[in-house]
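In this supplementary section we document a worked example of the pipeline. Step one takes a protein sequence of length 101 as its only input; no multiple sequence alignment statistics are reported here. Step two produces a three-dimensional model, which step three serialises into structure tokens for compact storage. The input and output of this example are shown verbatim.
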Amino acid sequence: TVVLLDDNMKIIKPVFNFLKFQQQRGRSINTLKANGNDLRTFWMFLKEYSYAYDAINPNNISELIDYLRRGKSSELVIYPISARTGSTINRILSTVYQFYK
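The serialised model returned by step three reads:
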């Protein structure tokens, strides 16, 4: 089973329920791992921006996309290179969408 733990090493229940549902639907272990990793990234975004997962609205999606594109460097550059490819960003957004659906 794939689980996501918070900073206190406790299972994040909404993510656990989502991954359990995906497992019951017959998703492969690799898909569950990818979904867990995507939601870990999303939870890091929520923590950085001090959002609660149940308070997210469509207006926050542009901030999420900027977060996903942002590199690890905090330096200001004229043409920043995305930290993730477009297809990776789309996969993460798809996972977040399925999580809320």
